[in-house]
Amino acid sequence: MEQKSTHKFSVLAPMVVSAAIAIVLSLAMTYLAMAAVFGPDPHALAPVARVKRFGLFAAAIIPLIISPATTFRFVRLIAALDRARSDLYRLAHTDQLTSLLNRRGFDIAAQAALESARAAGRPTAVLMCDIDNFKALNDHFGHGLGDQALVHVAKAIEKISQGRAVVAGRQGGDEFALLLPAATREEAEQIAIGLRAACAGARVDNEIHAATVSLSVGVAISRYSRDSFPTLMSRADAALYERKRHGRDYAAVVEASRDVPGAPSPGNAPATE
Fold first, then answer.
1. 267: left (phi > 0), else alpha (psi -120 to 50), else beta?
2. SS3 state at 254
3. pLDDT tens per residue across span 14-71
4. How far is 98 from 152, CA to CA, in rounded Å?
5. Superfamily holding 103-257
6. Closest CA to 114 of 185, 166, 154, 170
7. Are the beta carbons of 126 and 179 closer than 8 angstroms?
8. By CB neighbour count within 10 A (0-12 exposed, 13-18 middle, 19+ buried), where does 33 fall?
9. How many CB atoms are closer than 10 A to CB 196?
10. d(CA 113, CA 116)
11. Which helix (DSSP H) or strand (DSSP E) does residue 163 occupy?
12. Which of 131, 213, 217 is nearest to 172 (CA)?
């Protein structure tokens, strides 16, 4: 919070300084112009008509001289403030290690994508992934290798998301989530299998240790996006852990709902592996 306040102050302070400079310049130019027209004696008398003409002249000319420079400065400072606000938003919604969305950022973006898909009557899929035996990897080989594994999975997610409408983020720890608006069951299965394959057997190492990475994936499908975002996330999470109870390094898919009025729900059992 302190860092954000400091960042904002660093942008707002020059705006205050610029305003102060503009006021001082206006006063100084007005005083000099009055001295040139009426003389340096502050007690000298001058005709009212002449004073009025000078007032109109000063009111028109002095701002005309000062305004362009101050306006340009203010425009630049406002643009800098907008960039600072964008940077702060990005930092608040991005995972620093993997550069994917963090949980907060993912929830906001995924909820918006789900609502758009629902409004268009399109299917939606959610993938929940985690690294197999991640705790053991950290405990036995250190957090450095664990971080390498997380970065490798994040890069695999970015690569498989290219050219697709995908919202991807790190949920925390070794868990990642992807929301696929307008994805059919077959497309979601292909992405899940491709992502698992991209991570299977990946090697992470340092000067002392080496280890391999594998990924388990759970997928929930909602054919017409009538399931709520929390429901889809919960079903994908359930599919993931159901898969891990029967073995790791696999992808499991469940149908979140049939989305047909009166149709029975297929439940949580994995449909394919």
1. left
2. strand
3. 667 767 777 777 777 776 777 676 666 666 666 766 666 767 667 667 666 666 666 7
4. 9
5. Reverse transcriptase/Diguanylate cyclase domain (3.30.70.270)
6. 166
7. yes
8. middle
9. 19
10. 5
11. none
12. 131
Q: Which residues contact 40 (CB under 8 A, 6 or more apart)?
A: none
Which three-class secondary structure string do you get for 182-223? CCCHHHHHHHHHHHHHHHCCEEEECCCCEEEECEEEEEEEEC
For residue 201, what are the CA distances in angstroms to 73, 155, 196, 234? 56, 15, 10, 28
Is the overall model pTM greater than 0.85, yes or no?
no
Nearest-angstrom CA–CA distance, 7 and 93: 17
* 127 closest CA partner among 224, 240, 214, 230: 240
Residue whose pair of structure tokens reads 């630049």 in the numeric block:
76
What separation in angstroms does the CA of 143 have from each of 101, 120, 170?
21, 44, 17
Indicate the SS3 state at residue 1: coil
Task: Dump the DSSP string for 27-60.
Answer: HHHHHHHHHHHH-S-TT----HHHHHHHHHHHHH
Domain boundaries, the chain: 2-93, 103-257
